[in-house]
Amino acid sequence: MIKKLFVGKYIGIDYGKKRTGISITDDDKIISSPLITVETKDLFEFLNNYFKKEKIEIIVIGLPMRLDNTYNIIFKDIQKFAQKLESKFKIPIHYVDERYTSKIASTIISNSHLKKMKRRNKYIVDKVSASLILETYLNLNKKINKWFYLFTYIIIQY
After folding, report:
1. Secondary structure of the chain: what % helix, strand, coil (to 5)?
2. What average pLDDT does this structure show over 109-114?
3. CATH number for the domain including 130?
4. Rounded Cα distance, 45 and 52, in Å
5. Given Cys at both, which of 57, 62, 106, 136 links 98, Cβ 3.0 to 4.6 Å?
6. Residue 69 located in a structural domain
7. pLDDT for residue 137 is more than 70
8. H or E element that contains 59
9. Which sign, positive or negative, has the C-alpha torsion 125, 132, 25, 8?
10. Residue 121 lies inside a defined structural domain of this protein
11. Looking at the domain assignment, is residue 81 inside a domain?
12. pLDDT value at position 143?
C-alpha cells in the first residue's frame, strides 16, 4: 500500500484592487474552504504571518478572463502580485480562469441562510470566490491525475 505524504495545503487567491479573498484546502487537498478576505494593501503581511503557521505547497490565483478570452484590466496587477509573491515565498503558483466566480459566489450566498445584511457583505463574496477558484483547480487536477494514473496503469500492464 502506498502512503501519501503530507507536504502542505493549497491556498486560493481572488485578487482585487481593494480586497483579496483567500481560501485553503484540507490536509488531503480534497476540499476547499473560504478562509478570509483581507484588504489588498495588507495582503503580504497577512500571507507572511499565515505561511509561518501553515505549510503551503501551491498557490492558486484566479485569472480575470473576459468572454472573448482576453484578460481583464486587473491582469497586469495580478502579474505583478504573482511575481512578487513567488520571489518572496518561493511557492509554486498556478492559475485558474476565474470567470463568473463572483457571480456564482453571490448566488451561493443569496441561497444560504444568512441574513440579508450579511449576504450583501462583499468580504464574504471575495472569500467564497477564492474558494471556487481553488475548487476549480482541485477538480481540474483530479481529472488530470485520473488520466495519468490510468495511462500509467495501462503502460505497466503491457
Report:
1. 50, 25, 25
2. 60
3. 3.30.420.140
4. 11
5. 62
6. yes
7. yes
8. strand 56-63
9. negative
10. yes
11. yes
12. 52
